[in-house]
Design goal:
By secondary structure, the chain is an all-alpha fold. Helices cover 71% and strands 0% of the residues. It is built from 16 helices and no strands. The protein has helices at 2-6, 11-23, 27-41, 49-63, 77-80, 89-92, 95-102, 106-110, 123-135, 149-184, 189-202, 207-221, 230-265, 269-272, 279-311, 315-334. The longest helix is centred in the middle third of the chain and has 36 residues, at 149-184. The termini are far apart.
């Protein structure tokens, strides 16, 4: 951290801090460091694929509630409960940048801290607590909240609410950071891969993730000599494999939405009117999903044709053949929307 203190305007220093934060699962600090790094370095920044992938893994785990904002096993107890721990950003970042980075993130730093319930309690709950205090032995002043079920239940509900709010705010922040990165780097396949993974978790509809898969495919398919180079070919296969999964997920999502709408339309008018998507919207969504699968099929056909003379004996080539059959099955099951 001393190097960063001495070079706080260096995007390379922030890049190192970002990489370490992602490795240690310091999700909020890594996110803030990435934002500052992009703000300072802009297009001069070199996005390292490994660090970006590590960060994406950590961000997704946090959004899913699998880890806390600070999941470093070597951090102190204060950091582990979100109390701030060894957060050095406040003393290192340029103030003009940090003000923008941290203004919406105060909840993230503290969201895991134990939240005291409001002082207003039900009369019955207060009576139970007062009766319980009379039974406590002399000198036992620190009574755990678990001794009072009503108070503990309320505390846990408040903590859950704060956690949910923090994750919602963090999701918006990480989307903002990725949008900033993609505005600077339009030909980075690994960045689009990570963005697709993020949006697959943040967005309920898989369409956004698929759109970034299309961009990933575009970049990997424009690399020179990909049909003759095994490493480049395998990277393209990876992109098409992920694209196939997201296309099928999009199709399944659209099909389920149509089925739900059809089931809703058989109920009374008040229930059916509560749907936010019209049949026309759902039909367009279904067509878009169907086209996404067919587009992916077309990309795989073109890849197989172009690489057949050089890569037909490779595992990646056979994987593409399997993926094409999988996509074809998905479209036949869904039926072409009219």
């Amino acid at each position: 951290s001393q190097a960063l203190r001495n070079n706080r305007r260096s995007w390379r220093m922030w890049q190192n801090y970002f990489a370490i934060g992602a490795e240690l699962k310091e999700v909020t600090e890594a996110t803030q460091a990435l934002f500052i790094m992009l703000d300072i370095g802009a297009r001069d920044v070199i996005l390292e694929s490994k660090s970006l992938s590590n960060f994406t893994d950590v961000a997704i785990a946090y959004i899913r509630g699998e880890i806390r904002s600070c999941d470093n096993p070597h951090a102190g107890d204060e950091a582990m409960v979100g109390g701030g721990g060894s957060n050095v950003l406040s003393s290192l970042a340029p103030k003009s940048l940090l003000d923008e980075v941290l203004k919406d993130d105060q909840m993230l730093v503290q969201h895991n801290a134990t939240t005291d319930p409001t002082e207003e309690s039900a009369a019955a709950g207060e009576d139970v607590e007062e009766a319980a205090i009379d039974l406590v032995a002399f000198g036992a002043e620190d009574i755990p909240d678990t001794f009072f079920p009503a108070k503990e239940e309320k505390r846990l509900a408040e903590v859950a609410k704060q956690n949910e709010l923090a994750i919602t705010r963090y999701s918006a922040r990480v989307v903002e950071v990725f949008n900033k990165a993609m505005s600077l780097f339009v030909n980075n396949a690994d960045l689009y891969d990570c963005a697709a993974r993020i949006f697959a978790v943040v967005e309920t509809n898989p369409q956004k993730a698929f759109q970034y898969r299309e961009k990933e495919y575009r970049v990997t398919s424009q690399v020179d000599q990909w049909a003759r180079n095994q490493t480049k070919f395998n990277r393209l296969v990876q992109a098409l494999s992920s694209m196939s999964n997201d296309a099928i997920a999009f199709l399944e999502y659209a099909s389920a939405a149509q089925q739900q709408q059809a089931a809703t339309s058989t109920t009374d008018a008040s229930t059916s009117s509560s749907s936010t998507a019209t049949p026309v919207d759902l039909l367009k969504q279904m067509k878009d999903a169907y086209d996404a699968v067919k587009t992916t099929e077309s990309h795989i056909d073109a890849t197989l044709l172009a690489s057949g003379d050089y890569m037909d004996a490779e595992d990646g080539y056979r994987k593409l053949e399997v993926l094409r059959k999988k996509l074809n099955t998905a479209t036949r099951k869904a039926n072409k929307p009219q």
